[in-house]
Amino acid sequence: MIELEGVPELIDPVMVAAFEGWNDAGDAASTAVAHLEREWKGEVFAALDAEDYYDFQVNRPTVFMDGGVRKITWPTTRLSVVRIGGDKPRDLVLVRGIEPSMRWRSFCNELLGFAHELGVELVVILGALLGDTPHTRPVPISGTTSDADLARRMDLEETKYEGPTGIVGVLQEACTHAGVPAVSLWAAVPHYVSQPPNPKATLALLNRLEDLLDLRIPLGELPEDARAWQVGVDQLAAEDSEVAEYVQTLEEARDTAELPEASGEAIAREFERYLRRRDGGGPSSGGHATAEGGEGGSYLRDSPSGRTRPPKPPKPETGPETESEAGPDGDDEDSSED
Length: 338
What we know:
Blueprint: E1 14-20, H1 28-39, E2 43-47, H2 50-53, E3 62-66, E4 69-73, E5 78-84, E6 90-98, H3 104-118, E7 122-131, E8 141-145, H4 148-153, E9 157-158, H5 167-178, E10 182-190, H6 199-213, H7 222-238, H8 241-257, H9 260-279, E11 288-289, E12 295-296
Parallel strand pairs: 1-6, 1-7, 7-10, 8-9
Antiparallel strand pairs: 2-5, 3-4, 5-6, 8-10, 11-12
């Protein structure tokens, strides 16, 4: 039963969702939604029943002390609402949780029930996967949709992916069947440094969300955190000649694949974002999805057997970023979800 008591009538609501787990390399997507909730002081108004969707041996509850009283937090998915002021006020319904262990169709139907009751006009699902992308270059972000009209109107890719998927792909498909416009935004995280956090990927997702929804998101310390993250990875890579060589190979492949048109579009988007900020358009666990459709681990991490080495990079004919979709939830290294 859906209880929405205390939730005001919303203005042009958009649902933004992210889920920890396979769809969330480097915790980039879930951290992006957490950032929105924190910056705009979102208030939780609903939570899904954890008993219905989670295996507690996989996602265990945690115990904490509250004023000397022991309490338990159960793994679940929560919904909150934030209002964005400015000349064109609107509301965001934020969904943040964990990829469910079971009953995915019921899980998606329950979320869509909330979306229907709240009058949500668009669902944006954030994800992150591991890819052959160098940490020294801008984070590839792809936006895809199953709606051909939406793809044309919002300059998105119409997904044609086939292969393993996560809750992001299932939820997007459920939105399509329910007649709710849905978009997936995916960040490609370097597979050789996949451990969280990855503020650079989080920042890239938020920037793309800004462009998609034409709003201004207060970024707080994220830009500085992203710079510090890159400096830290630079230092780690410099300590290992084999890793440094591998990163250089990825850089060369990436730079070769970049087209002048793509660079021009990136510059135009950055300029539009600058104008929006200047004008003040509003107040301020296991494996992960990979570009090959499987699960990936982490590199640059010490272990009892020594530092893990990256695999020898492939020798792409046209670079690692192609137009074909090869990830479990998206294109390729620029991958995006169903």
